[in-house]
Design goal:
Elements lengths: L13 H7 L3 H10 L5 E2 L3 E2 L4 H14 L2 E6 L2 E6 L1 H7 L3 H12 L6 E2 L7
Antiparallel strand pairs: 1-4, 2-5, 3-4
Length: 117
């Protein structure tokens, strides 16, 4: 993986963020990452092919929602909560609240999640 581009705060647009959050898999990934922990891509579980999961992670990164870090051959991802809260105050909390109450993205998790076994 070449060095990934992460939009600066002023480059993040509402249209890009809302577009990235328009998919249940991506909302599920945001729900998983909302705990503040950096996750290895290999830890993430979703009912899609690995290449499709990679696409979803790229969409989130390109919108500025996540930050990806490469360490050797492994990639790690984390939610850019602080940046999102500064640029779009309250948006992430609102999305997460509704996603939780409507169970959107609940089929996405991490490798040790018993719900996905």
């Amino acid at each position: 993986m070449k060095q990934a581009h992460h939009p600066e705060l002023e480059e993040m647009t509402l249209v890009a963020v809302m577009g990235a959050l328009s998919d249940p898999i991506r909302i599920g990934l945001v729900r998983v990452l909302a705990d503040g922990r950096e996750r290895g891509w290999g830890e993430l579980r979703a009912p899609v092919a690995k290449s499709t999961l990679s696409h979803h992670l790229r969409v989130l990164r390109d919108a500025g929602i996540t930050r990806t870090r490469q360490e050797g051959t492994r990639c790690f991802v984390e939610l850019r909560r602080g940046d999102l809260d500064v640029r779009f105050p309250g948006l992430l909390d609102a999305v997460l609240d509704v996603a939780h109450s409507d169970d959107v993205g609940a089929h996405v998790g991490v490798a040790d999640d018993p719900r996905l076994a």
